[in-house]
Amino acid sequence: MSQINRIKGGLVNQKKSISFTFNGQILTGYEGDTLASALLANNKKLVGRSFKYHRPRGIVTAGSEEPNAIMEIGNGPYKEPNTRATITELYNGLEANSQNHRGPLGFDLMAITDFLSPLLGAGFYYKTFMWPKAFWEKFYEPAIRNAAGLGTLSTEPDPDTYDKGFRYCDILIIGAGATGLSAAITVASSGAKVILADEDFLMGGRLNIESIKINGVSGSKWAKDTVAALSAMENVTLMSDTTIFGVYDHGIYGAIENRSSEAREDKDKPRQVNWRIYAKRSILCAGAIERSIAFGNNDRPGIMLASAVRSYANRFAVATGDKVSVYTNNDDGWNTARDLGLKNVRVVAVIDSRSISPVLRVPGAEIFMGVDVVDTSGRRAIKSIKLSNGKTIDTDCLAVSGGWNPNLHLTCHHRGIPKWNEEIASFIPDESNPPGMSVAGRAKGTMVLSDAIIEGHNVGSSVALDLSYNVKKINPAETPSVSYSVTANWGVPSGKNRAWVDLQNDVTAKDIKLANQEGFKSVEHVKRYTTLGMATDQGKTANVLGIGIMADNMGQTMEETGTTIFRPPYSPVAIGAFAGRRRGMEFYPTRYTPSHKWSVEQDAIFVEVGMWYRSQWFPLPGETHWRESVDREVKQTRASVGICDVTTLGKIDIKGADVSEFLNKVYVNAFAKVPVGKTRYGLMLREDGMVMDDGTTARLSENHFVMTTTTANAVNVYRHLQFCHQCLWPDLDVHMISVTEQFAQYAVAGPNSRKLLQKVIDSDCDISNEVFPYMGAGEITICGGIPARLFRISFSGELAYEIAVQTRYGDSLMRALMEAGKEFNVVPYGTEALGVMRIEKGHAAGPELNGQTSAYDLGMGGMISGKKDFIGYKLGMREDLLRDDRMQMVGFKPVNAQDLLQAGSHLLNLRDKPSTESDQGWISSCIYSPILGHYIGIGFIKSGHSRKGEFVRAVDLVRGNDIEVEICSPHFLDPEGERLRV
Amino acid sequence: MIINHPLLGPRDSEEFVYLGSADLIKRPNNWEEDASAEDFYQYQYIRENIAGDHRELWYHEQGDQSWLVVTRNTLSHEILNVELAQDVSREIGRGK
User: Fold this and answer.
1) Distance, CA of A683 to CA of A530 (rounded, Å)
2) CATH match of A875-981 with 3.30.70.120
3) What is the H or E stretch that residue A921 is in?
4) Which domains are present in chain B?
5) Which residues on chain B place their C-beta less than 8 Å from a C-beta of chain A?
6) Equal CATH topology for A162-288+406-466 and A292-402
7) Does the pLDDT at position A490 exceed 60?
8) What would the mean pLDDT of A342-370 be, rounded to a whole number?
C-alpha cells in the first residue's frame, strides 16, 4: 500500500501527489515532502549501508546534518552521489538509489565486514597493511577504497549549469527560524538593506516542526505570515534553499543557492548559484542541532533523533512508527512524545536517563526515569530495546535526544574557539566571532524559544543602530515560555555491543577509547585517527558526543578537551558551483588575433599561446605532414616574402618627458639617446640579474615611445614597469598604457617585403633603404590615408618590417597585404615557421629565457652598460653569475647531417656515460632547417662560448637518441646580418 | 578581502595582484659603491616574516593599475591603512 505511514495534516500538500523511484521501485509522495519524508511515508526504513561495516542504516535526522541517508540522485551524467535525502525537495521523476552496497540493499555482500568488526577498529588499516610497503598504493588502498566509501561518480562531464552572483546588503541574517525572523522583521523596519537566508526550501526553521503557538497562531503560520510581510518590503531580499557556507574576510559570505527545480524546467538555468554576499554586518540565527547518545547498537534503522521524529510527524505528516519509544536526557525529548500523542501516533515508552520527576504526562506510555537504553535488536529495522533495568520493550522507532548543540559552525571560521556551557551541556560561541557577526537565539545557547525571539529582536535593533538605522517600535512576538533542562549523557557502557558515535564514518565509542589509549590526546588527532567528524556531515550530530566520550576517557573537562576547528564549507558545495560558468572554453577568455577570421578561411592550424589562438601553420591541399607546410613557409619567406600575425606580442605605449631616462633604468643597454624615428632592441633583467624579457622600443617622437614585449610576458612586463615607475621613481614624467589589443601588427619578412609594402603604403611615405634604414620606425599612412606604424625590425633575419594599424583595420590589412603580395608569391607563415627562422638566426626565446639565464649566459653581456644603474645591474654582477663555466648559450649541429636532433637532449662529453655528474648541458630549442638541410639546435653547455668547434654527444634517454654534435655559433644564418640591411 | 582603494573606494581583493613587502620600495641608490652589493642582497632577498601589522604592495591590475601600500594584520587580515605607493615612495625621498 502506498504511503502507509502518512497521517493527517502537516505542511505538505496532500492533494498533490509526486511520483519518484527508490532503487527502481516507483513510489509516491506529496508536494512539500523531502525525499526522506516520502521514503518514510512509504515505510522505507532501510535506506543505505554504512561506510565501513556496511551496516543497515535508516534516516536519522530531518535536516542538513544527516549522516546516513545519503544517496545517488539522477542517472547518467546527471547522477549526483552523496546527496542528503533529508534536504532534497521531492519532485516528479526524482530517481534515488542507495549507495555503498554490492548486491541488493537488503542483502549487501560487503556486510561481511560487520562480522569482522572486532578486527577493524580505529587505525586498523594503518597498522595492518604496512607490508610490503609497495603494496599500499597499488593494492591495499584501492581495495579498501572500493570496499568502504560513499557514492560513485558518473565520470561524465556534469551537464548542469552553475552560476555565480554577487549581492550587497547592510545586514545579512543567517537562518529564518524564530530568532532570524524576529531579527529580520525588526531590522527591516529601519530601512536597512537586509538579506535573509535559510538552507531549507521552506523558511521558518523549527517553527515548522513544533506544535507551539506564537502570537496566538501556530508557529508555522506565524513564520509564513512573517515571511510574506518581509517579502513585500523593498529593502528585504529573501533567499530560501540557500546555505551560507563560509565566512570570509571583511564581511564577505559564501552562499550556495539551490535552484534545482528551475533548472529542471529549463536546462540553461543554473542548478546552483554560488553567491558572494558583501554584508556590513551579519546576525547568525542558525539554531541548534540535536545530538544522540552512545548506547549499544544505536544505529539500527528506526532509531532517529527525537526532533526528527517530531518533524516528520508535524511538518511532513509521517508517522515514523506504530510503537514509538523516546529516550532522552533533556526536557525537549518529551515534546516528541507529547506531539506524537496529539497526532494519535502510539508512544509505548519514554526513558529519561535523569532521576527526576516525569516532565510531561504521556498517555499510554510506560515512563522510566533514571533509566538508560543499553541495547537494541532488529537487523534491518529496530524491533526492541533493552533497558538498564533489564526490561525489554518492543518498539519500531526509537526517538533519541542527547541534548542540543548550538549551531555555531560559522562563528569559528575566523578561528573562534567555542566555550563549554554547563547549563545547556554544550559548546556556545565565544566572544571572538568573525568581525561584524552577531549571534542570537539557540545558536548562541539561548535555548528557550520565547527568550530567543526577544534576543533576535534586541540584537537586530542594536546591529541596525550600529549602522545608524533606527528600527520602528515593534514588540517581539510572544510565545509561552517552555523551559529547557538537560543533564549530559554521553552513553552507557555497552559491553561487547558497539555504541556508535559517528554514524557516517562508523566510529564507535570503543574506537575513541582505543585512540585515547594509544596516545592520541588531542581532539584533532583523534579526529584524524578515527575519522570522527569527517565526510559530508562533518560530524554535525557526532562531534560533541565524541568530545564528551573523550573527556570521560581522559578524566578531563569538556573545556580542556575542546572542539576541532570548524572550517568552510558548512555543508558540501559542488565543485561545479565554484567553477560557475568558467568551464571548458569559458575557463578563461579566448583571445583571437585580428587575422583570425582570415586564417580560418585559409584552414590554418591553430595553437593556444597563453590565451591567444595563433596560426601554427597554413597547410595547402596535398600537404600531409606539418613539416611540409612549415618548410615551404620558411623557404618561400626567405626566397621572397612572408607574412605573420605578431599582434600577440605585448605593446606598451609610453609617453612623457622622462621616458628615455626611465627606459635607461629598466633595460640593460643605453636608451638615453635613441633618436626619433629609431627602434632599439632592449634586454630587461629582473632585480636578481636574470633575464626577464626582451623586445624592441621605438621612439616615434620626442616624448612618445612604443615598447614591445614577448607574448608570454606582456602582462608581467607592464606590471613591472608600473612598479618601477610608481614605487621606485615616482616623479619621472612617464605615462604608460598597454595597447596590445588596440593594434594589429604583422611581420612582413623576406627580400621582397619592401616591394610588397610599397604597394599598400601611401605614395608620400618613403620607405627606401636610405630614408627608412634598418631599425627605422615611423608613423605612416596606408591604403589611402589609414594611419599606421612601421618598424624595420626582423626576427627572421631577413629584410623585414612590422606594420601596425588599429585593430579594426587588422582583417582588411591582412587581406590587402596578401592581395598586394600575389605577384611576389607571398606566403602566410605561422608560429612554427617563425620558430624555425628565429632558431636559424640564433635568437633566444621562451626556452632560453627560463629565469635562470643571465645576459652573459645568452652571449649578450656586451650589451650591458657599466655607466648606469638599471634593474638587475648590481646583483647581475655577482661573482658566480660572471663565471666562465656557467651554462652558456651556443648553437649545435649534428656531425652526421642525417641525424635527428631533439630539444630536451642532454649534452655529454664524447666518452662519458650519462649521469648527473657528467651532464654538460641541454638542447633548449631545436628544429629542422629547410635552408641548411639538417637539424640545428640552440642550447646551453658549460663554458659554451669558448668551446665552439668542439664535439659532444646529444643524448635523449627517453626517446632513445644518442648522436654526435658540434658546438657552434647560434647564428646559423647570415651571422653578419647583411640581409637585414639591404 | 576588501581593499579600500584611496582613489576608488572599497574593491574586492580579486581585482588585485599581490607582490610582497613594501620594503621593495626602498631600492638602494648607492649602486656605484662596491659595498652596495650587500645592500642590494638585503633588498632583494631578506624579508621580515611579520605576525602582525605588515606593510605590503598590492597592484590594482583589474582596475586603475595603481600600486598600493596596504597595511594588513597578517593574523586577523584586518586592513588598517591603504596608501598610494607613489605617495609612500615620495615620503621616503624617492621623488625628484
Assistant:
1) 58
2) no
3) strand A921-929
4) 2-91 (3.30.2270.10)
5) 1-2, 12, 17, 19, 24-25, 27-29, 31-32, 36-37, 40-41, 43-44, 57, 59, 61, 65-67, 76-79, 84-90, 94-96
6) yes
7) yes
8) 97
A278 vs B: CB within 8 A: yes
pLDDT at A145: 60
Four-residue CA torsion sign, A840, A842, A846, A852: positive
Q: Which three cell numbers stand for residue A133?
A: 610497503
Cβ neighbours of A262 (radius 10 Å): 11
Provide CB contacts within 8 A for A216, sequence distance 6+: none
C-alpha cell at B79: 586592513
Residue B23 pLDDT > 60: yes
How much is the average pLDDT of B2-7? 98
Lowest mean pLDDT, pick from A58-62, A371-375, A376-380, B16-20: A376-380
At A70-80, the pLDDT tens digits run 999 998 999 99
**CATH homologous superfamily of domain A652-738?**
Aminomethyltransferase beta-barrel domains (3.30.70.1400)
pLDDT > 60? residue A1: no
Confidence (pTM): 0.91
Q: Tell me which residue of A907, A913, A925 sits closest to A966, measured CA to CA.
A: A907
- ipTM of this complex prediction, to 2 decimal places: 0.99
pLDDT tens column, A594-603: 999 999 999 9
Class for domain A591-648+742-829, per CATH?
alpha beta
**In chain A, what are the domain boundaries?**
13-119, 162-288+406-466, 292-402, 497-577, 591-648+742-829, 652-738, 875-981
Q: Which of residues 674-693 of A touch B (CB under 8 A)?
A: 687-688
C-alpha cell at A878: 655577482
* Three cell numbers written together for A92: 516528479
Q: Which cell goes with A656?
A: 612623457
pLDDT digits (tens, 9 = 90+) for A306-348: 999 999 999 999 999 999 999 999 999 999 999 999 999 999 9
> In one letter, which amino acid is A60?
V
A429 vs A420: CA distance, rounded Å: 9
- Residues of chain A in contact with residue B19, where contact means CB-CB under 8 angstroms, are 723
Architecture of domain A13-119: Roll (3.10)
Taking CB atoms and an 8 Å cutoff, what residues of chain B touch A729? 94
